[in-house]
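Feature request, filed as a ticket because there's no other form

It would be nice if the structure record came with a short human-readable summary line next to the tokens. Right now we just get the raw output. Example of a typical job, pasted below so the devs can see what we mean:
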Amino acid sequence: MIKQFFLISKKPELSAEEFRYYYESNHVPLIKRLLPMFARYRRHYLDYGNSVIGTDQVAPGFDVITEIWFAHQADYDAFIEHVSDPAIIAEIRADEANFLISDATRSLRVETVE
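Raw output as currently delivered:
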């Protein structure tokens, strides 16, 4: 399976709860509608209150790790084609402006080994 990770930072004026609520209630349905070619779509929210962070570690600079899985290369290629469409990306960016810092988002294609 092909996986793409996104490291996403919330807007500073939002609480972690507001950020998560907006993401789950608004952005997830939008992404599922615009980009239906993925096999799995997971969000891993950082739990700063209960995370073990040593005194010598710095905060990671993001609030959620989003993980999108694609069953086939053709699905991934369709995803890339869709996010290259100016109309689709404009709709996504307009929604992102409500809850996250688009310019801070980092995208990583990963290979999982077990």
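Something like this underneath would help us a lot:
The mean pLDDT is 91.
The radius of gyration is 15 Å.
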